[in-house]
Amino acid sequence: MAGASQEAARESGSATDAEPRTFLTALRAHQAMVFSLAYHFLRDRNAAEEVAQDVFLELHRHWDELGSDDHVKFWLRRVASNRCIDRARRRKYQPIVALDDVPEPSTPGEPSDFLLNQKLRDLVSALPEKPRMVMVLRYQEEMMPEQIATLLGMPVSTVKSHLQRSLAMLREKAVRSLGEVR
Predict the structure, then answer these.
(1) What is the pLDDT of residues 8-30, one digit of tens each?
(2) Which of 79, 108, 137 is the last residue in one of the domains?
């Protein structure tokens, strides 16, 4: 009987020590990441909020199918990426409000983050949808090419090609628009 009570105490103790995996905890843990991804891709706060809301609605629908927190995070990034690309393709999105007029989202960023530069943001937003999403995932979300390939369902070599070509295009456009920096 003592063994059974110890077993019950261990089970009840483990349930109270760790926060249970619920939709609300996942929402709180990942809402900034989903919003940040959508905002940096779409460059419109309202559109990013709509995409994030759609993504979390979809998460709620598929909650029972997802296992671990890592699986949830991967799934959220994948669905958010696809929703952003779909939205951009459908509407050939053009921002209505200047980025200077929109407050920066409350995500921590380092001063060396190249996406903070307004001109570079304009150049990145001019990239086609897939290469732009690869750039956002690599430099905003700090994902490795292998992770991006898995997330977007493309070969690693394609991700690396997108990165290389996009960086070359950005360098060329930056030199043309800003002139040679000495």
Answers:
(1) 433 433 333 456 678 899 999 99
(2) 108
Residues 6+ apart with CB under 8 A from 178: 119
Q: Is the dihedral angle over the CA atoms 62, 77, 83, 53 positive or is it negative?
A: positive
| Overall number of domains in the chain | 2
Provide the residue range defining the domain that includes 122. Answer: 110-182
Domain CATH code at residue 179: 1.10.10.10
Looking at residue 96, its pLDDT comes to 56
**Long-range CB contacts (< 8 A, 24+ apart) of 166-169?**
166/127, 166/131, 166/132, 166/134, 166/135, 169/127
* Count of helix runs (H) and strand runs (E) in the chain: 8, 0
CA dist., res. 135 & res. 145, Å (int): 10
Task: Look up residue 30 and give its two tokens.
Answer: 């990942």
Final residue in a domain of this structure, among 61, 91, 108 = 108
Taking CA atoms, 108 is separated from 12, 105, 111, 116, 137, in Å, by 37, 9, 10, 12, 16
